[in-house]
Amino acid sequence: MAVLPAFKDGVTVLREHPVILLAGLLFALVGQVTSAGEVVDSWIVSALGVVVAFLIGPFFLGGLIGMALEALEGSKPTLGLFVESGTRFYVSLLGATVLLTGLFFVLVFVGTLVGVVSVFAGFAATGAESGAAGLLGVGIGLLVFLGVFLVAFVAFLFLQFFNTAIVVDGERAIDSFSRSVSLVRANLRSVIGYSLLWIAVWTVAFAPIIGLELVLVEPGLADGVQFDRTVAQAVTIGLAVLVTGIGYAYLYAVHTSYYTRLGSADGGADGARSANA
């Protein structure tokens, strides 16, 4: 069973190599560029932030996974390795990220289109004035939503190891998806358990941040207490960077450990090693 040992490896890696925490915080800081538009109240800044985070994110992800791999192999990761690994695998990671984003966009778009058409078809079939039409429309909408969510989750489940396949095994963008699918098919029950636990850890970590943001930023939720909106947003962004940075460092160390454990058990591809090649 590789799931629990991988999560333990994440703790060990961060305890023995805290420099990985710094890499995680840098990654999180880049991700929070998208929040700058909220602070200055500009959708243009928000849009530019999304583009910047999307383009730079693969570099930080490659560097973070490279450092985690180096630590798991018993060597000492450095920020120099972070830059080297991020640079080496940037093109493949960016290409794979673009493809994956496009896939999920198509899934959501098609699902939404099917949902809207199905709801209108339901109204047309039962009569717009009928109370049953409203119930049918809601029911169809929920079913379509659940269907899209299920398809998206399955896609995530089978493709989630594309990033480690690129950094650990030196796969190209397209091949990284094939490698991920192959690994998941060979270890499906284990991967399902791992994925649910991975998501649960993220959810538990972020729940307090979301709650704090609602209290500080949304008017009326904290009765009798007044907060300066800009200060409140700055506080929540700072806390989000801290929590996200620790989460990135820990969970991608876990992700790398789990991938290498499955790859070893599965007789995975030799590939190129990110740090030593």
Number of strands: 0
Distance between the termini: 29 Å
Number of helical segments? 11
Task: Provide the residue-averaged pLDDT.
Answer: 84
Please give the radius of gyration in angstroms. 22 Å
Number of domains: 1
Judged by helices, strands and strand pairing, the structural class is mainly alpha
Helix content: over 70%
Question: Topology of this structure?
Answer:
Elements: H1 3-16, H2 19-31, H3 36-40, H4 43-72, H5 79-88, H6 90-126, H7 131-159, H8 162-169, H9 173-186, H10 188-217, H11 229-266
Helix pairs in contact: 1-11, 2-4, 2-11, 4-5, 4-6, 4-8, 4-11, 6-7, 6-9, 8-9, 10-11
Summarize this, please?
The chain has 277 residues and is mostly helical. The chain has helices at residues 3-16, 19-31, 36-40, 43-72, 79-88, 90-126, 131-159, 162-169, 173-186, 188-217, 229-266.
Textual characterization of the structure:
The protein is mainly α. It has one domain (3-266). Helices cover 82% and strands 0% of the residues. Helix 2 (19-31) packs across helix 11 (229-266), helix 4 (43-72) crosses helix 6 (90-126) and helix 10 (188-217) packs antiparallel against helix 11 (229-266). The protein is globular and about 65 Å long. Residues 1-262 form the DUF7847 domain. The chain crosses the membrane at residues 45-69, 90-123, 135-159, 191-211, 231-251. This is DUF7847 domain-containing protein.
